[in-house]
Amino acid sequence: CGKWVVMVTAQTPMNMSVIKYWGKRDETLILPVNDSISITLDPDHLCTTTTVAVSPTFDRDRMWLNGKEISLSGGRYQNCLREIRSRATDVEDDENGIKIAEKDWEKLHLHIASYNNFPTAAGLASSAAGFACLVFALAKLMNLKEDRSKLSTIARQGSGSACRSLHGGFVKWIMGKDEDGKDSLAVQLADEEHWDDLVIIIAVVSSRQKETSSSTGMRETVETSLLLKHRAKEVVPKRIPQMEEAIKNRDFASFAQLTCAESNQFHAVCLDTSPPIFYMNDTSRRIISIVENWNRYEGTPQVAYTFDAGPNAVLFARNRKTAILLLQRLLFYFPPDSFFGLNSYIVGDKSILK
Ligand code: PMV
Question: Which of 56, 87, 310, 348 is most enclosed, with most CB atoms within 10 A?
Fold first, then answer.
C-alpha cells in the first residue's frame, strides 16, 4: 500500500584524540596533514543515538538534532548522503513484505533524528559521534557491504574526527596519500578490553558553544602557523609509532608523557595562528598545573590530560585507585559552588562510583 516505514537506530560514542588532528590538506574531502590516534569512549556516557527512517510517504530528506530541525543542505551532510546512497544495495524484509531495490534508494527520502547525551559543540567532539552514528545507521538501513574502515572514509567527509568513532577501543586515522581520499581511513589498534585499568574522567569546565569552530580554526592555522608545518613534518611522524608502542604495552608513563605533550603542542599551534585561537581558559590551565604538580611529586605519571577545541579537560587516570584520588582532588580544588567550580564530571567507567 506504500505506507511502510523502515527504521534503524544506532548508538556511537565520542572519541578523544591523544595524538591530535589539526589541519586539512584538502578541505572538501577532509584529508588531514598528519595521522592521529584516539580512544573511543564508553558508550554508556557520551554518545549520539541516531534513528534513520525511510518511507515512500516522505517527500524530502529531513533531520532533527536534539529535537530541533536542522538543515541538511550543507556540503558535509550532502557528501555523506551521496556517498552512502551510491553504495546502497537491495533490502528485503520478508516478514513485513517490504522490498527496496538498489535503484529505489536514489528516489526514496530519509528522516533522521539524532540526540547527543552531552553538550553539543563544546569541545567534546559531538560532531565526531554524530557523523559516525549517522553513517553507521544509514549503512545498516541501506544494507551497505563495506566494512567499518571503508565506512570511516564516508564519516570522515562529515567531520574528520568522526572517522575514528567507527571503531571502538584505540583507533588510528591514517592520513593516506591518495588525492581522492580512499586511503584516508580509520583502523583499530586495540579493542575496548585492551587497557582495562585506564579510567577516563571528563571535567566539564564549560558547556557553552566554542567561539572558533574547528573548521575555521584549522583553516587559519594551516594558512598562518609555521609551528604546524614543523609539527606535521617532524613531530607527529615520530610520536605516532611511540604512542602505538605505549598503547600496545599499556605503558602509562609513555602514554601520559605523549598525551600531555600533544595537547600542549596543539594549543601552542592555536596560539601560533594569526589571529591566535584560545580554546583553554584559566580553569583548564589550573587543571594542567594540578596534574603536572601531582605527577612531579609522585616521580612517575599518575594522570594524563588532553584538551580539544574547548576548555573541558579529558583526564586519564592510570588505574581506579588513582581515579578516585583524582576526583577527590578536583572536588577539593574546584568546590561545586565556588567561582572556579566545574559544571560536572563525567566518569568513563561506572564501576568507580560504586
Ligand atoms: O571536529 P573536527 O573533526 O572538525 O576536528 C576536531 C579536531 C580535534 O578534536 C580538536 C582534535 C582531534 O584529533 O580530534
Answer: 310
Fold of 6-190: Ribosomal Protein S5; domain 2 (3.30.230)
Cell 552531552 belongs to residue = 118
17 CB under 6 A from ligand 1? yes
Q: What is the pLDDT of residues 83-116, one digit of tens each?
A: 999 999 999 988 888 999 999 999 999 999 999 8
CA of 273 to the centre of ligand 1 (A): 16
CA distances for 231 relative to 38, 211, 222, angstroms: 18, 24, 11
Strand partners, 275: none
DSSP secondary structure, 45-78, as one string: TSEEEEEEEEETT--S-EEEETTEEE---SHHHH
Indicate the fold that domain 199-353 takes in CATH.
Alpha-Beta Plaits (3.30.70)
Q: Which atom of ligand 1 is nearest to the CA of 19?
A: 13
Within 8 A by CB and 6+ apart from 26, the residues are 179, 181
Separation between Cα atoms, residue 258 and residue 139, nearest integer Å: 35
Pocket test for ligand 1, best of 12, 22, 263, 278 (most atoms within 8 A of CB): 22
Interface ipTM > 0.95: yes
Q: Is the CB of 160 under 6 A from ligand 1?
A: yes
* Fold match between domain 6-190 and domain 199-353: no
14 lines ligand 1 (CB under 6 A): no
Question: What is the model's pTM?
Answer: 0.94
